[in-house]
Each structure stands twice: as structure tokens, then as C-alpha cells.
């Protein structure tokens, strides 16, 4: 049952039949007095009333005052509280104060008996109390707003505006927001109003009226009268309460949180929810605060903030070993707040990335954290059990005198009374409580104490590293300009230096790490991430030791480390379809177009990083990794295209006709990309006879798709705050740079049949639709198969291939010894032969190896020669994908260092850089000879 519910699954059962535990009467005479007021009670019901009235003076008074109502309520427990709620909805404003206080007495009595008798769970008790608080606030606000409107004090407002409170909303904070009110809880409220409801000239008058309404509402709830009070009400959680009115504009609140909001306020808003007034306006306000509460990157810096808050509480409540006498069950060591901080801090850390973590109740938060892999299941199970037990003790402490206290008794008599209300023997109760407090402290302290490792053994760090000039200049770097960053890095430094000392080439690794650290614009967040997850230091040192270039890239994009903590970073690759679905879901959460594009960039970086780390760590082979990079590019295009279309359609209308598809050419079509690949694309559309779009600014179909394509290119390649996605190359479209950027299906069909050059047919062998409507995609693929089913004569294709090789050699040269792509017998050369084999086969396979096999079947390559070309291509590809991961420039073993060379030799199955160079030279020389022998000689 949800936290806000009341009885639910107990429908049809009597109250007495659900009793599972009973309090003992601490004062039997008082118990008999309560029983005397309820002569109708018998059996367990009588024992519950006697134990309750004999131990809690407050509940004793309620039993005697409400005995008549209680009899009927217990006879029909499912309708008892709903009946109170319904009756209050009909109360006139003038009678509301007394009626709300009577309702509170009855709810408190019924909930107290249901709690003490074990009839309700903790969530049902706190849910019932919270639902009554919601109703009370709503009715009190309604009456207060109605008074202002009827007096003509709220500008422009009429009777119809009472329901929405004239744009005012009350946010329930803390335990009320999470449906977790304790038995004698005060309620924390923030009152805001939507200033856009009023003309600027009426702002001050409206605010004054809403401030008066807020004060009257608070008095209705808070003031102690002859009938008691409803709820003690605290309005001090609002922004800057010392200088702001009790009701402030949403715009002012938003400005405050954006510029001055503090860590505790972020945590408070985890539980915030609109409970009265203009609920829709409240939801919109909370949405505007989402970036303040839920940060984009994993926010391990929140651990330190929470730890500091805990220490402040400890300073007030005392340190040292737990003693039960006078111990604070909420704020003390091992208490309720420790569990809440543990839960909320974990939620803040990762809730920006995972909306599933944005739940309000503590128990729900623990459950989701466990399901998502952030906290072990046994830890959440024990903390949940202790949380519920702590809350029960808290409730009974408060039930005795209806006091808003969390302190355990200091006198012997007080503990005897509390144990009696718990229905337990005192000695056993105290042992159990002490154990729970100790275990909560033990389970949470290691998470919050960031200096826990300081007392342990530190790695041995050679003096030549610890005292070198490189390390000495670190304090001058931008990442270490704040005291918080320096404090955290001081803890990390021995581990980092110890790990660098164990690298194959410590000085090279240190220099690479220095490049990473020097490039960091700020350090607190990343250092906090490493501090909470020391295993990331190993990964970072692995990366910087292998690739100084990648280290410098990481310093500018350190947020990608977030992905490693997600739990499934090292799981098998999910594939293009799953990636597309995930990115589509991510983008659907954002309404702003630019934010969608930035989120796509952030998401793609993390998956790009994951693909690279898997290759770096040996979890994938070069062939497999090429497919992963291609899957990622395809997912980005498939998810981004609808977003671009929707944005474009806002001005120019929906795509005319059947829409457009994006066709991946070259390496994308063949599903073989590396870390620095750009994307060769063409766009094919089908207007289906529709001449123009139907938007506010309609465009002719041809112009519509041309501009839509340009918008897609911009969305992919524009430099934004999160960088760019991919460089896009459209030169493989019909007529190259001279043709339109988007081609209609009919024009594409005609061009390929009547005008296409042989090189364009070769390129078509690797074409693959990667985004767009499925029906049109199927037609384009069918057209591709049809066009390639009847190949050109073999001698014509091979002659053209020979001329293409000559032109490429003249334009690009023969590459260098370490170039895996350009030069005779290297990747590009072998790809052309594979495309020719694919074209001449009439079946047009996209992968180079299959094209080479087709050439062998057609007889213009021998099987052995085709196998050698395929093996050479695999070697070149392994070197290419590895080199592009660790360096952006030309490959030079002297520049990539020992770590980089070790990585490349592992990928290529060689023993050393020299052996790799020799193998590459031998295999490509023979490959070049095979290709030259298979092609006709070129006339000079």
C-alpha cells in the first residue's frame, strides 16, 4: 500500500480481529479509568484501551473525550477516517477552527490505537496523519483566500479563484512531503505564489493579500485554543526567512535557489510536493528547480555536505558511545536522521541521471537504491527494519504527552513507561534498541566519513615521484584552487602516486596524469567521485598510462566517469535497438530543444567512453568494438532525427509525404567505426505527391527536406556546451557537393539507374538505412538490392578500380610505415577491392571480408589471396581502431609511450612495436602485390 493510504487490505475485518500486539498499562488505575469510559470494549480491544490509557496520559484524555465516537469508529474502521474527511469538506469557514481540532483529536486517537495494536503498518500510520495534514492545510488555505477575495483585497480575483488560491501554492516539505509525519509532528510548509497571475502594477497588493492569507492559514492550524491545536506549523524553510515574507513569489524563490541555494535545501526538496492551493503551479515550480536539486553529473560532493551537517548535529547532540538515557532518536548517533541522510545523499548523487531515484519516502528510497545497485540489498533491508523500529519508538515517546520530542527518557520511570507502551519488557527493549542504534551508526558511518581511509596504510610512494617537480606544481593548477578540492585531493594523492608508481613506466604515467590534472577546469566534483569510488583511480591511471591524448580529452569531459558507477558499465554491449530506446527516453524528459541536443551529447560521450574502455581493458576485440561504435552512431541518428523533425515542424509543419530516411554510407554502413570516425550520410525523402508542408511558414517539399537535412547536420555537428556529436560528411550523395543535400526517392532511383559512376555504385554496396520511418527504409533497402542485382561488366569495374587507386595514390601518397589506412595494400586499398567483389557478386554484402570472399567465388581473386587480404585488413583495422583511441594525430610509437605501444601490440597480437611494424610491412606489401596482379595495368 502506498505511503499516503490508510487501511486498504483490511477491508471487511473488524478492528479487534486485526490486533497483533498490546501495550501494558504502566499505571493500572489510569488504565481502568480509560476502560470505564468505554464499557462497550471487550477482549483484546479492552486490553488495548486499558494498556493505552494506562500508559499515555494524552491518549487517556482522548479516549475519555471521544469514547462515543470511538465506539462507532471501531465498529466500521474502514469508514472512520474517510467519514471525518468528508464531514470537514462541508464545514462552514466560521466553524472550521473547532472542527479541524476535533478531527485532529479523532485521527490522533484512531491512529494511535491502530499503531499500538499493530493494526496498521508504519506507512499506514504516517500516511493517515499526513493525509489529515493535507486536508487541514487545504481547508485552512481555502477559507483564508476566500476571505481576501470576498473583501476585494486580491486584485482581479473572484469566487472562481478560491479553488486555485489565486495562484498561491503550499509546498509540503520534510516528513509531510514524504507522507511520513510522526505522531506529534509539526509541519514544514513553504508558501509561494505565481506572480504571472497578476499585472505588475498589482504585484505588491496581491502579495500583501496572500501574506495575510498565509498568516491566517497558519493561525488556523497552529494556534492553541480550548479545543487544542491542529498542527504546529513552521514556515521557516522558505528562502532566507529572516528577511522574506511568509509567502513569496515563485520568481523570487527560483532566483534564490539558483544563486544562493544550499546543500540542505537541495536535500529538503527531495521530499517537496504541492499539497494545497494551485497544485499545477506548484508542480511547474518544482520542475524549474529540478536542475538545482538533481544535478546532471553524479554528485559525490553531496557526501561531504551531508557529513558536515551530521557533524553539526553531533556537536549539538554529543559524540562518543551511545547511551540511551536522553538519547535523541532523530538527530543522535545511529538515529533516524542518519538513515534519512544516507538515503537522501545517495539519491542526490545519482538522481540527476536516474529519475527512478527521485522518490520521496525514505523506505521507498532505500528500496530503489538497492534495485538500482547503489546500495547492497542486505544493507537496505537492515536499514529499513531499523528505520521502522526507530519510528515506532519515536511515536511512542511522543504519544505519552503529545510532545514534539525525539528524546528518550532520562529517568528510570520514563523508560519503564516507554517499554510498557511498546508492550515489551524493559531490559529486552533496551538491549534491542541499543543494538539497532549501534548498527545504524556502523552501516552509515563508513559512507559519510570521507577520512576513514586516513587511518589505514598508505601505498609506498617512491621519493622520485612524491618529491619531483611535476608533483610540486600541482597546487597551482585550476583544479586545486578551492580549499574543498585541496582537502579531498590530499586524501587521494597517496593512492594516485602509489598506483602511478606501479605502472610499467612510472615517469611516463606521471607525465600523462599531470596532463590530465592540468587540463581539469575544476576538481571538487571529480575528486569527490574518486574519493567515494577509489576503484576509479585504477581506471584513470590505466587510461592516462595508455593514452596521454585520451587523458587530455578526459580532463575536458570528466563527467563520463559517471557512467562507470552506474553498475552495468562493464556489462555486455546492449546493441543499437536498446541504445536507441534509452536515448529516446532520455530526450523525452527534456522539453527544450537545445537541452535535448546537449543531453544527447552527454549521453553519447558516456557510451563512447564505455566502448573505448571496453576495448582498452580487453573486454572487446577490435572487430567487435567497431560494431559498438557503429551501434552508438546509429542510435544517436535514430533518436535525434525525430527530435530535429519535431523542432523543425513547429515552424514549417510536419514532413510532407512519407518522410525521410538517413542512409549510413562507408564505415557506418559497414558497421565499422572507430573513436574518431566522422559519419558519411545521405538523406532520401519521398514527398509522395505532396507539394509543400502545412506549417505556419510552409515550404515546398524539396526545400523543406533540404533545410531539414541542414538542421540535422547542425544538430549532430554544432559545438554546444557539451561539445558535438559527430562530424558529418554528405559528399557521397548523388552528384556529390554539386547535388542537393537531400534527394527524393524517385530522383535517387533515376540517378543510380542512369547517371551513377562506378565509384558511386561501389559506395552503394555499403549503404544502410540507419534512421527514419520503417516503411520507407524498407523501400530504400529494396531499391539498393535491385540496383546492385545486375552488376556492370567485370572488366569495366576492375578498370575503374585501378584508376581510382591511381587517383588516391596521387592525392594522398603512400602513407607511412605506421599508417594502417592509406597506402598500397592497406585498409582503404583492400576496402575498394572488397566493394568491387561485392558489386560484381550481384548480392552486395556490406562487409569487406564478405566482398573479398565474393571476389574469390567470382574467380578474379584466388581463395588464398582473398584470405590474405582479409587477414591484412583485420591487422590494419586492429591498429587503426587502437591508434584512433589513443592519439588524434599520425601514429608514432615514440609519442604514445610504453603504455600505448603495449595496448597496440596486444590488439594486433604482436610482441613489440618493432614486431608490429615488421608484420604490418610484410602483410601489406604482399596485399599490394595481390591487388596489383588482379587489376588491369594503367596506361600512363
TrEMBL record:
Residues 314-448, 819-886 form the PII-uridylyltransferase/Glutamine-synthetase adenylyltransferase domain. Gene3D superfamilies: Beta Polymerase, domain 2, Nucleotidyltransferases domain 2. Its EC number is 2.7.7.42. Pfam families: GlnD_UR_UTase, GlnE. It is an enzyme of class 2 (transferase). Residues 54-287, 539-778 form the Glutamate-ammonia ligase adenylyltransferase repeated domain. One of its GO terms (cellular component) is cytosol. CDD domains: NT_GlnE_GlnD_like (cd05401). This is Glutamate-ammonia-ligase adenylyltransferase.
Amino acid at each position: 500500500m502506498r505511503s499516503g493510504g490508510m487501511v486498504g487490505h483490511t477491508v471487511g475485518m473488524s478492528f479487534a480481529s486485526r490486533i497483533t500486539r498490546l501495550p501494558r498499562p504502566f499505571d493500572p488505575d489510569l488504565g481502568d479509568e480509560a476502560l470505564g469510559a468505554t464499557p462497550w470494549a471487550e477482549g483484546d480491544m479492552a486490553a488495548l484501551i486499558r494498556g493505552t490509557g494506562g500508559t499515555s496520559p494524552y491518549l487517556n484524555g482522548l479516549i475519555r473525550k471521544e469514547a462515543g465516537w470511538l465506539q462507532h469508529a471501531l465498529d466500521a474502521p474502514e469508514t472512520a477516517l474517510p467519514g471525518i474527511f468528508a464531514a470537514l469538506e462541508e464545514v462552514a469557514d466560521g466553524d472550521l477552527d473547532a472542527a479541524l481540532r476535533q478531527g485532529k483529536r479523532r485521527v490522533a486517537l484512531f491512529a494511535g490505537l491502530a499503531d499500538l495494536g499493530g493494526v496498521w503498518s508504519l506507512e499506514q500510520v504516517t500516511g493517515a496523519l499526513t493525509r489529515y495534514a493535507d486536508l487541514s492545510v487545504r481547508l485552512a488555505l481555502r477559507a483564508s483566500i476566500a476571505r481576501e477575495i470576498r473583501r476585494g483585497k486580491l486584485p482581479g480575483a473572484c469566487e472562481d479563484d478560491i479553488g486555485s488560491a489565486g495562484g498561491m501554492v503550499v509546498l509540503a516539505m520534510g516528513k509531510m512531503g514524504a507522507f511520513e509525519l510522526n505522531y506529534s509532528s509539526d509541519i514544514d510548509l513553504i508558501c509561494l505564489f505565481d506572480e504571472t497571475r497578476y499585472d505588475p502594477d498589482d504585484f505588491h497588493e496581491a502579495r500583501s493579500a496572500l501574506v495575510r492569507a498565509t498568516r491566517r492559514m497558519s493561525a488556523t492550524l497552529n494556534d492553541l485554543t480550548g479545543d487544542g491545536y491542529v498542527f504546529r506549523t513552521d514556515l521557516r524553510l522558505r528562502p532566507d526567512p529572516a528577511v522574506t515574507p511568509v509567502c513569496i513569489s515563485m520568481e523570487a524563490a527560483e532566483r534564490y535557489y539558483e544563486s544562493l541555494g544550499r546543500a540542505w535545501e537541495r536535500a529538503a526538496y527531495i521530499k517537496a510536493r504541492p499539497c494545497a492551493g494551485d497544485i499545477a503551479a506548484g508542480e511547474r515550480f518544482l520542475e524549474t528547480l529540478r536542475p538545482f536539486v538533481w544535478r546532471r553529473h553524479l554528485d559525490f560532493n553531496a557526501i561531504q555536505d551531508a557529513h558536515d551537517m551530521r557533524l553539526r548535529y553531533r556537536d549539538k547532540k554529543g559524540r562518543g558511545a551511545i547511551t540511551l538515557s536522553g538519547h535523541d532518536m532523530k538527530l543522535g548517533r545511529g538515529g533516524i536522521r542518519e538513515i534519512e541522510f544516507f538515503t537522501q545523499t545517495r539519491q542526490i548523487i545519482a538522481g540527476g541521471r536516474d529519475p527512478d531515484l527521485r522518490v520521496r519516502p525514505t523506505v521507498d528510497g532505500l528500496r530503489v537504491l538497492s534495485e538500482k545497485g547503489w546500495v547492497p540489498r542486505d544493507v537496505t533491508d537492515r536499514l529499513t527494519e531499523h528505520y521502522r523500529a526507530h519510528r515506532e519508538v519515536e511515536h511512542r515517546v511522543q504519544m505519552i504527552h503529545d510532545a514534539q520530542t525525539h528524546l528518550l527518557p532520562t529517568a528510570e520511570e520514563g523508560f519503564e513507561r516507554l517499554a510498557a507502551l511498546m508492550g515489551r519488557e524493559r531490559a529486552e527493549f533496551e538491549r534491542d534498541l541499543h543494538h539497532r542504534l549501534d548498527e545504524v551508526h556502523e552501516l552509515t558511518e563508513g559512507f559519510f566519513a570521507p577520512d576513514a581511509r586516513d587511518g589505514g596504510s598508505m601505498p609506498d610512494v617512491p621519493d622520485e615521484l612524491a618529491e619531483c617537480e611535476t608533483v610540486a606544481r600541482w597546487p597551482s593548477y585550476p583544479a586545486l584552487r578551492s580549499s574543498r578540492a585541496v582537502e579531498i585531493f590530499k586524501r587521494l594523492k597517496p593512492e594516485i602516486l602509489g598506483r602511478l608508481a606501479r605502472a610499467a613506466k612510472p615517469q611516463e604515467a606521471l607525465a600523462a596524469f599531470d596532463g590530465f590534472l592540468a587540463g581539469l577546469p575544476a576538481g571538487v566534483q571529480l575528486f569527490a567521485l574518486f574519493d567515494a569510488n577509489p576503484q576509479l583511480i585504477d581506471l584513470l591511471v590505466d587510461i592516462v598510462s595508455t593514452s596521454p591524448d585520451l587523458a587530455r580529452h578526459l580532463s575536458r569531459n570528466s563527467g563520463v566517469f559517471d557512467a562507470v558507477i552506474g553498475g552495468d558499465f562493464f556489462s555486455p554491449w546492449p546493441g543499437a535497438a536498446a541504445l536507441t530506446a534509452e536515448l529516446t527516453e532520455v530526450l523525452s524528459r527534456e522539453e527544450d530543444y537545445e537541452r535535448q541536443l546537449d543531453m544527447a551529447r552527454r549521453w553519447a560521450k558516456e557510451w563512447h567512453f564505455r566502448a573505448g574502455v571496453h576495448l582498452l581493458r580487453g573486454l572487446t576485440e577490435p572487430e567487435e568494438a567497431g560494431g559498438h561504435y557503429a551501434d552508438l552512431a546509429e542510435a544517436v541518428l535514430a533518436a535525434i532525427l525525430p527530435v530535429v523533425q519535431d523542432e523543425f515542424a513547429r515552424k514549417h509543419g510536419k514532413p510532407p509525404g512519407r518522410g525521410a530516411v538517413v542512409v549510413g554510407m562507408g564505415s557506418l554502413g559497414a558497421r565499422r567505426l572507430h573513436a574518431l570516425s566522422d559519419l558519411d550520410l545521405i538523406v532520401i525523402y519521398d514527398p509522395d505527391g505532396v507539394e509543400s508542408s502545412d506549417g505556419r511558414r510552409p515550404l515546398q517539399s524539396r526545400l523543406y527536406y533540404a533545410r531539414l537535412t541542414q538542421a540535422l547536420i547542425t544538430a549532430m555537428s554544432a559545438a554546444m556546451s557539451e561539445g558535438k556529436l559527430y562530424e558529418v560528411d554528405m559528399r557521397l550523395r548523388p552528384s556529390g557537393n554539386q547535388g542537393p543535400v537531400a534527394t527524393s526517392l524517385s530522383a535517387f532511383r533515376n540517378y543510380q539507374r542512369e547517371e551513377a559512376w562506378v565509384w558511386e555504385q561501389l559506395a552503394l554496396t555499403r549503404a544502410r538505412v540507419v534512421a527514419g520511418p520503417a516503411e520507407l527504409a524498407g523501400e530504400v533497402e529494396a531499391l539498393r538490392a535491385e540496383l546492385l542485382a545486375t552488376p556492370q561488366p567485370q572488366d569495366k569495374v576492375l578498370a575503374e578500380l585501378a584508376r581510382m587507386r591511381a587517383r588516391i595514390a596521387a592525392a594522398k601518397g603512400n602513407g607511412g610505415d605506421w599508417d594502417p589506412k592509406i597506402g598500397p595494400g592497406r585498409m582503404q586499398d583492400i576496402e575498394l577491392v572488397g566493394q568491387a567483389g561485392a558489386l560484381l557478386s550481384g548480392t552486395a554484402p556490406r562487409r569487406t571480408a564478405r566482398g573479398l570472399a565474393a571476389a574469390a567465388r567470382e574467380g578474379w581473386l584466388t581463395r588464398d589471396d582473398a584470405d590474405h587480404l582479409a587477414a591484412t585488413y583485420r591487422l590494419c583495422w586492429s591498429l587503426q581502431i587502437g591508434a584512433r583511441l589513443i592519439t588524434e594525430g599520425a601514429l608514432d610509437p615514440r609519442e604514445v609511450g610504453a603504455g600505448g605501444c603495449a595496448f597496440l601490440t596486444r590488439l594486433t597480437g604482436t610482441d613489440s612495436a618493432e614486431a608490429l611494424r615488421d608484420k604490418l610491412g610484410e602483410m601489406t606489401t604482399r596485399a599490394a602485390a595481390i591487388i596489383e596482379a588482379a587489376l588491369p595495368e594503367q596506361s600512363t
